[in-house]
Amino acid sequence: MKYIIIVIDGMADYRISKLGRKTPLQFAKTPTLDSIARDSEMGTARTVPEGMAPGSDVANLSVLGYDPQKYHTGRAPLEAASMGINLLEKDVAFRCNLVTLSEEDNYIDRTMIDYSAGEIPTDKSRILIRDVKNKLQTKDIRFYPGVSYRHIIVWSGGSDRNILTPPHDITGKKIAEFLPKGPGENVLLGMMIKSSSMLEGHIINKKREKEGARPANSIWIWGEGKRPDLDSFYGKYRLRGSIISAVDLIKGIGVLAGLEPVTVEGATGTIDTNFSGKADTAVNQLIAGKDFVFIHLEAADECSHQGDVENKVKAIEIIDREVIKAIKKDMEKEELDYKMMILPDHYTPIRKKTHSSEPVPFLIYDSTRLVNGKNKKFDEFRAMKTGLHFEKGYRLIDYFFGKEV
Length: 405
Fold this sequence. Notes:
Elements: E1 2-8, H1 24-27, H2 31-37, E2 40-45, H3 56-63, H4 68-71, H5 76-82, E3 91-101, E4 112-114, H6 122-136, E5 141-147, E6 150-156, H7 185-199, H8 203-210, E7 218-225, H9 233-237, E8 241-244, H10 248-257, E9 260-262, H11 275-287, E10 292-297, H12 299-305, H13 309-333, E11 338-343, E12 360-366, H14 380-385, E13 389-390, H15 396-400
Parallel strand pairs: 1-10, 1-11, 2-13, 8-9, 8-10
Antiparallel strand pairs: 2-12, 3-4, 3-6, 3-7, 5-6, 11-12
């Protein structure tokens, strides 16, 4: 038996008037998901424990079977692991976004315009982070370039007891009440302010503005944490697996769990990603001998953060066509028995433009045991009505693998 988990990040949503009071998942044309739903189990799982922030770090730890209340230390150390950054015991990692702020003279009077600086391309962002690094890096504070707007800072001997806010939570809001607070606030805010004075006149940003693109005119520091210690995935489940994602956070969880991160050319984490390449890679990993693949698709979440309902629907439809349909077709062609679970990691409602922590819907399809149920479609409300629910979301994967729950 082969096992496939497809996480459609942030897919779950609320009813939207513009969509005739349907959610994007209900509204989207998903013939493959509809056909699978008829032969699948559906239910819900609480991937974000009560009292924890509904981030992809917390939720994806749950989906992979790790209790976030035990294993979660922060987002940045997971991304650092993906980037090959070896964190020592005294190191604290921070996420460092390139963002677009409004242009008031006083930094604290500004507004968060765009947490991704217009999804700035990696070749441009790396030049900007390099120049920030040359000015701000010290013996104890080091900068590491990542992909697009996502980068890492490591502070040796820094505190992990600060209160820091994800920039995607405050789009359109004044930043004053969300600036760093805690033992490291002066250092962290100082770097943010200094970065802004450097970046505002940078030649790359001047060119972006001329082209009508958003400038990356500040860094934003958040997601602090120390290196977590995850149990081996193979040790827990005796399955050898791969993880396929464009997002360092997800790959980092895989690295720390002992799953093999697999790079797909053209994978971007946006709606322009190489969807079909991810599907092909997943099947090829299983054919080559892996027992399990975890496929993470970021596009729907990015659209939600931007408040882009049309592209969120489009992303779900593309995933149905180019990922789910392709995998089902290829697994049948190869005559491989398989179980496939499809779910979002968390809700990302369009109206909020950020994550929320309701239990998420899931679907489990077993090619060897068709349910032949009455489900005509996979969506948030049908999944709720089944009554199958995992309050401890990290136990869902045990159920999926056929272990005793």
